[in-house]
Amino acid sequence: MSGHSKWSTIKRKKGAADAKRGKIFSRLSKEISVAVKEGGGGDPEGNPRLRMAIQNAKGANMPKDNIERAIKKGLGGDANSYMELTFEGYAPFGVAVFVECLTDNQNRTVQEVRAAYSKNDGNMGTNGSLEFIFDRKGVFTLPITKEMDIESLELELIDGGADDFTVEDDYLTVKCLMEDFGNLNKKFEELNLEPENAELQRIPNNTKAVGDEDFRKIMKLIDALEDNDDVQQVWHNLEVGEGQEALLN
Questions:
Q1: How far apart are CA 26 and CA 23, in angstroms?
Q2: Strand arrangement of the beta sheet that strand 83-90 belongs to
Q3: What is the 3-state secondary structure (H, E, C) of 180-225?
């Protein structure tokens, strides 16, 4: 099992725990509000980005009231001040770390992300410095039901642009090229299937394995970044070794 595959599973489990603490809800709310502004209004039928944001929110068990409030904020103009920022750099031992943010204060975010890197023995690089490490791909996570014929479903999804499948923990993970993301999302809709999560991910084309003590040091930086309210996603190429999942608790 690749480190990234295992990490995706861990992220899903961590996400469920984070939702109980409300952390992930604020990030999803921000994405919904921005989707209303950037995607063309508050009607998900005519706004694919909003439809996806709502879909992901439902997958994280976000209450309907929270979703509606986030849409109203976007319609009210609260999303106008958000800007998208990305940061690239390295954690200790050469592990690549790519950070995506939505912020209403660029200076604050730059300072806080830089501080997270420096306080945890990391180094920020220039944008574009990690392009050779990550490929941007569409990733859909679909709960498997007893009624599903996985083999037939995969053939249908291949017609929509899917090029990779993984079955793990009663979930089917489907990947596609970034340019096929919209077509594959439409294919899910045609099949009346609603993925629990659908997003563009940065998939590492190589991973780094480290010992347990070094793993803890790297995770200090990743956790510090993920705890920042302006950070939406943190991508990295850290290999999760045998038994190291327990070190995340």
A1: 6
A2: 123-124, 83-90, 96-103, 231-236
A3: HHHHHHHHHHHCCCCCCEEEEEEEECCCECCCHHHHHHHHHHHHHH
Which residue reads 């014929």 in tokens?
149
Q: Is 132 helix (H, G, I), strand (E, B) or coil?
A: coil
List of domains in the chain: 3-80 (1.10.10.200), 83-132+206-239 (3.30.70.980), 134-204 (3.30.70.980)
Tens digit of each residue's pLDDT (9 = 90 or more) over 178-199: 999 989 999 999 999 999 999 9
Global pTM reads: 0.84
The CA distances from residue 4 to 59, 77, 144, 168, 203, in Å, are: 21, 37, 21, 13, 7
- Tracing tokens 């096929």 back to the chain, one arrives at 180
Burial class (CB in 10 A: 0-12, 13-18, 19+), 19: middle
- In terms of Cα–Cα distance, which of 149, 136, 137, 206 is closest to 174? 137
pLDDT over threshold 80, residue 11 = no
Helical H runs in the chain?
A: 3-21, 23-39, 48-59, 64-75, 106-119, 150-159, 181-190, 212-226
Tokens at 219, concatenated: 């995770």
Q: 248, 249, 237: which is closest to 210 by C-alpha?
A: 237
